[in-house]
């Protein structure tokens, strides 16, 4: 994932968080929030922060749409979200073996479900220009397709700038493996102008060193969240 982006001048940050059973969902969400706060504080002159998460990582990235940044004393320059094959409604997981590690109650699941929270208490986007790309693989399971479609619809109904894209001929894991390829849809950096289409991360503005002057200056930052809740 890193090389195709860094070669285009994007600074990439891979974020770790405590996995279950050591880390509960609330703790994971808090750690992800801390990571964005740190990056924005460390590099206040960035041209945009783009969050990318796969599977459980997409869930954690989506939770940042609901974060109360006033408690952090910072307003991150969030410009885009790449939510890849994510889970946005955690309640169905309570009836699966996955919950044996998460130990999620109904209240936990609802509090940490961006789908449920946006349905029950709709909130307008903090930045109407921020684009959310909801992505699912053609051969992902029906549940991933359902959740991606319904989350996209909820975002659109709430006034968020969202797109839904199905990537052909890939399953849940092939999407992740293909992120190392320069010719893959999700790593086509700066190939089209904004407003960007599916899978295209805007390139940073040109600078004297070809846009590679570092995150403190004019480059964009991509924060990646691995796709697992549990060890």
TrEMBL record:
Gene Ontology MF annotations: hydrolase activity
Residue ranges of the region described as Disordered: 197-231
Gene3D superfamilies per UniProt: alpha/beta hydrolase
Alphabetic keyword roster: Hydrolase
Domain of life the protein comes from: Eukaryota
Residue ranges occupied by any Alpha/beta hydrolase fold-3 domain in the UniProt entry: 9-172
Alphabetized PANTHER family for the sequence: AB HYDROLASE SUPERFAMILY PROTEIN C4A8.06C (PTHR48081), KYNURENINE FORMAMIDASE (PTHR48081:SF33)
Name of the protein in its database record: Alpha/beta hydrolase fold-3 domain-containing protein
